[in-house]
């Protein structure tokens, strides 16, 4: 089975949201504002997620995305996907590479 780089990018965002949700469910002292900021270096993947582009092409991704969005909403958590250029001097971004 071939997997495109676009699929990997989209899956990465969804996996990040799932991990954030898992963390928030177990966090006893979370006093955040309810806003989750996800910084990502692919405008294409952000557009696919934000605008639900290619939902027909990637139905499994959109099932996971819908599930995690519903659970986060039930927890009063809202996600903003923000573009950031790759290798832009952000320590966490540089550590992963």
Please, could you describe this protein's structure?
The chain is of the alpha+beta class and 97 residues long. The chain has one domain: 2-Layer Sandwich (Nucleotidyltransferase, domain 5), CATH 3.30.420.10. It has four helices and two strands. The protein has helices at residues 5-26, 43-50, 59-74, 91-95, and strands at 35-40, 78-83. Strands 1-2 form a two-stranded parallel sheet. Helix 1 crosses helix 2 (43-50) and helix 1 packs parallel to helix 3 (59-74). It is globular and about 40 Å long. The model has no long low-confidence stretch (mean pLDDT 80).
Report strand %. Answer: 5-15%
Shape: globular
Structural class: alpha+beta
The spatial strand order of the largest sheet comes to 1-2
**Contiguous runs where pLDDT drops below 50 for at least 5 residues:** none
Helix content: 40-55%
Order of helices and strands: HEHHEH
CATH architectural designation:
2-Layer Sandwich
User: Which CATH first-tier class would you pick?
Assistant: Alpha Beta
Structural domain tally: 1
Number of helices: 4
CATH third-level topology: Nucleotidyltransferase, domain 5
Major sheet description: 2 strands, parallel
Helices and strands, with pairings:
Blueprint: H1 5-26, E1 35-40, H2 43-50, H3 59-74, E2 78-83, H4 91-95
Parallel strand pairs: 1-2
Quick overview:
This protein has 97 residues and is an alpha+beta fold. The protein is built from four helices and two strands, in the order αβααβα.
Short key terms for the protein model shown above:
two-stranded parallel sheet, 12% strand, alpha+beta, Nucleotidyltransferase, domain 5, 97 residues, globular
